[in-house]
Amino acid sequence: MKTLYLTRRHQIEINEIMYLQSESNYTLIHTTNKIKTVASQTLHLIHSSIDYDNFIRISRSHILNIEYISTYSLEKNKLTLKLSNGEKFTASRRRIKNCLDKIEVIQKKSNLSL
């Protein structure tokens, strides 16, 4: 299993991360066990240290783990993604195409339907 090392004593299993949220120069890490962890690194630095295949940047402030996306809908050039915990996110206009392409690739690999 891959691990995100925040400090020597604090690490998080990457497959437990549901999404990452930017808060200025900090990153909130939301996990499957409903624990929020604050990392003193930017969203970009955290994203560069994890596996790109499972995570998708949907906006300037959010990166989602594709494994936890339960549904998505595209209406009037607005992409809405819903996670398995019920939280909803809207992709930025510029990132819609990239998001849809990455979701399609993941669906083909795993034969999942969102």
Features:
114 residues; alpha+beta; 5-stranded antiparallel β-sheet; 3-stranded antiparallel β-sheet; 2 helices; 18% helix; globular
Q: What does the model show?
A:
18% of the residues are buried. The strands form three sheets. A five-stranded antiparallel β-sheet has the order 5-4-3-7-6. It is built from two helices and ten strands; from the N terminus they run E-E-E-E-E-H-E-E-E-E-E-H. The chain has 114 residues and is α+β, with helices and mostly antiparallel strands.
For the termini, the CA-CA separation is 25 Å
How many individual β-strands?
A: 10
**Spatial order of strands in the largest sheet:** 5-4-3-7-6
Assembly category: single chain
Low-confidence stretches: none
Could you estimate the helical fraction of the residues in percent? 10-25%
Largest sheet features: 5 strands, antiparallel
Give me the strand/helix succession.
EEEEEHEEEEEH
Computed structural class = alpha+beta
Strand content: 35-45%
Number of helices: 2
Mean pLDDT figure: 88
Q: Kindly provide the radius of gyration, computed on alpha-carbon positions and rounded to a whole number of angstroms.
A: 14 Å
Indicate the overall shape.
globular
